[in-house]
DNA sequence: TCGATAGTTCGACTATTATCGAACATTCGT
DNA sequence: ACGAATGTTCGATAATAGTCGAACTATCGA
């Protein structure tokens, strides 16, 4: 009995073109808290490695989330040596879905919190 | 052996208040083609029954989708006799997430289609 | 060349979601 | 009171998605 060996295939990233974006895929990508957080972070810093953005999550989980974000067209990943730089595809997104990402990013992460003022207004 | 009888509980709709909306839930609700279509339809007609909006889908499936839309805060359902009227919660959504729904609805359903012009541009 | 670092892939498991028929609740018209 | 119409609930099944350890690829630095 010969023990079979798993083959690992390292494909280059495939980023969809802007005309391949769909709203459904974008919304699905943004429906996960971890991914929404990543997108918000990228909106602030312009570029970041995958490692900078994990919230203590394992690498394989992060890799999964980045793939979903790439497939939706939200994120572009460029291999720069051993490090991979992620950026938001702002221009492409705005071409394909004008104003959409801006409206999304305009919503503050904490907008769900109840502030002291609001509590008093009862 | 006594045959047990399933009990059916008909609860009234529970609509979340605007401050309970979350972006994640809204995006998840919109990530399904059937639900996105429902929202787009409601944006055009102001109010519609569940039956008007099925695309040949069974009633139980539609009921499921409407529940997700309600839970996300996108749709309000009011029982008007035997019929249930659905409306978009435009005001609440705009209070909670200003400009978001407008930006979403501004994206045409067909914007993913390949037009004759584009095909020729190869 | 060896080790460290960054991130992907694989694979297994779990959890959430979608689909849909059948039974049911509710209201309306007659 | 009965039947038709509208939509929900239940329950089972199928499909999709998230989690994460282990093995791996690729690159960099010493």
Describe this protein's structure.
Two copies of one chain form a homodimer. Chain A is globular and about 55 Å long. Chain A has 122 residues and is mainly alpha-helical. The first copy, chain A, has one domain: Arc Repressor Mutant, subunit A, CATH 1.10.10. In chain A, α1 (23-30) packs antiparallel against α4 (59-72). In chain A, 47% of the residues lie in helices and 11% in strands. The first copy, chain A, has seven helices and three strands. In chain A, β2 (75-80) and β3 form a beta hairpin. A three-stranded antiparallel beta sheet of chain A has the order 1-3-2. Chain A has helices spanning 23-30, 33-45, 50-53, 59-72, 90-96, 100-105, 116-120, and strands at residues 48-49, 75-80, 83-88. Chain A binds chain B through residues 19-25, 27-28, 30-33, 36, 96-100, 102-104, 106-107, 111-112, 114, 118, and chain B through 19-25, 27-28, 30-33, 36, 96-100, 102-104, 106-107, 111-112, 114, 118. Chain A binds a DNA duplex (30 and 30 nucleotides) through α4.
């Amino acid at each position: 009995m010969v023990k079979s060996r798993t083959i690992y295939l390292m494909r280059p990233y495939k980023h969809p073109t802007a005309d391949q974006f769909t709203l459904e895929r974008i919304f699905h990508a943004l429906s996960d808290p971890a991914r929404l957080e990543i997108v918000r972070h990228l909106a602030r810093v312009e570029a970041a490695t995958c490692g900078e953005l994990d919230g203590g999550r394992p690498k394989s989980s992060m890799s999964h989330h980045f793939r979903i974000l790439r497939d939706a067209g939200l994120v572009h990943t460029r291999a720069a040596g051993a490090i991979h730089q992620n950026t938001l595809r702002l221009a492409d997104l705005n071409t394909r879905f004008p104003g959409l990402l801006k409206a999304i990013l305009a919503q503050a992460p904490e907008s769900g919190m109840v502030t002291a003022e609001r509590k008093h207004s009862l």
